[in-house]
Design goal:
Elements lengths: L4 E3 L2 E3 L5 E6 L10 E6 L6 E6 L5 E3 L7 E6 L4 E6 L8 E7 L2 E2 L3 E5 L2
Parallel strand pairs: 2-11
Antiparallel strand pairs: 1-3, 3-8, 4-5, 4-9, 5-6, 7-8, 9-10, 9-11
Length: 111
């Protein structure tokens, strides 16, 4: 209740693609502070892509050029298109809007 909801995770081979979705109710949207983080096995949660003020987007160096974040405010939805996936992209991916976080979706990149 009252959380963004992620979907679209799964198992994919190296070099493959996945598209994650994050849906939230209007009351949860924080347009100047929303984005995607991930937590690899045994590691801390880290930034993947983030919308900031004036819709500026910040990407982690490790995903820049491979991942693209987008959103449709009218549909209360945000996406993360992930191309050229690598085994090191394996993680639980979380979306957040302000201080409210989803439950996460597992992405596993393996042959």
């Amino acid at each position: 209740q009252g959380r963004p909801v992620e979907s679209g995770g799964g198992l994919v081979q190296p070099g493959g693609s996945l598209r994650l979705s994050c849906s939230a109710s209007t009351s949860l949207l924080n347009f100047e502070n929303m984005g995607w983080y991930r937590q690899p096995p045994g590691k801390e949660r880290e930034l993947v892509a983030q919308f900031g003020k004036s819709a500026m987007i910040t990407y982690a160096d490790s995903v820049r050029g491979r991942f693209t974040v987008s959103r449709d405010i009218a549909r209360n939805t945000m996406w993360l298109q992930m191309n050229g996936l690598k085994p090191e992209d394996t993680a639980v991916y979380y979306c957040h809007s302000g201080q409210v976080w989803g439950q996460g979706t597992q992405v596993t990149v393996s042959s």
